[in-house]
Specification:
388 residues; alpha/beta; Rossmann fold; five-stranded parallel beta sheet; 45% helix
Length: 388
Amino acid sequence: MVSLNKTVSGDARPNAQSLLSKEQESRRARLRVYLGAAPGVGKTYQMLEEAHLLKRQGVDVVIGFIEPHGRADTEMLIGDLEHIPLKRTGYRGVTLEEMDVGAVIRRNPAIALVDELAHTNVPGSKNRKRYNDVLEILDAGISVITAFNVQHIESLNDAIARITGVHVRETIPDYFLRRADEVVNVDVSVDTLRTRLRQGKIYTVEKIEQALANFFRKGNLSALRELALRQVAEDQAAKAHDYREREGLEQAAIPEKVMVCIASGRSAKKLLRTGSRIAGRLASDWYAVYVETPQEELGRIKPEDHARLMENIRFAEELGAKVIKLKGRRVADSLIDFARREGITHVVFGQSARSRWDVLLRGSVINRFLAEVRGATVQVVPTGDGNR
């Protein structure tokens, strides 16, 4: 006979950590992200519709920033929603309007709507990017509903450039999406989106033909749509895994650790995007590791190389990596020691186009690493410069 007492007091009973996690989650401000494949899919419209529904339900919701882009239906939908006045800032003789983060926090609504998440703020603003503004609002205990397009995800930057021929400059680090409680895909068919463009519902008349021939080509939109759907699916899978692990429904996995090996080369950003993507899929912490050899010590390194290295380090920090600087005469030895010490499970290297003779004379960091660190998955990303 099966004992009911045993069933109740066994694995089904929530443990202390599970109860604590639930309590912390109930207190935390929540973040909902509307993700689209391209401009014009209806992200802002859907945000505003949701805001009106919340208001009718008695929820205190305000607009922190909305960009209607001159679309009459979007402007009409704003209606009687409370809009926190924007902050006006002078820059190079022009007055620009930005979201007033301080005013939003002082108003202290239950929910704030914030559009155009990838936007870069006016130089001199407290936060460099609007996603930083949103994180500050969340830290103040205010929930946020926001939106952006898939081409703004930093780790997809190289893939987007290959697909569309456009190098997107305003991006959002992947860790922001990991902070989101819910990511919702706003999806319309390629033909519907191109029809909206022809009708002037996305861009002004003079930009329509150029957009149809370039970014809004059918092939581009199909690929972007697939990326957006895949991104949301990966996010849902990660959140489902976290829930099962938190509730004790499956055994906690051994933590994965990702290491990206960077230097002063131009390819470092490509490597960091790859590492950020891997870390996002594994829901793990990750490191950007640089080995300073005697030839690259401050005072001996070329000024242009040092400037590029500092830029690469800043970029790694923006993406959420923990930057580690090692000192050593041999790059391979330092990387191998660090990987073993930290239990690294995934490594990203850049592979430049070196001749066989050069590899024979100087050796290969990657070959040494593969020979001596057997427990890590190594991904080699082709690069165009001499990044080790």
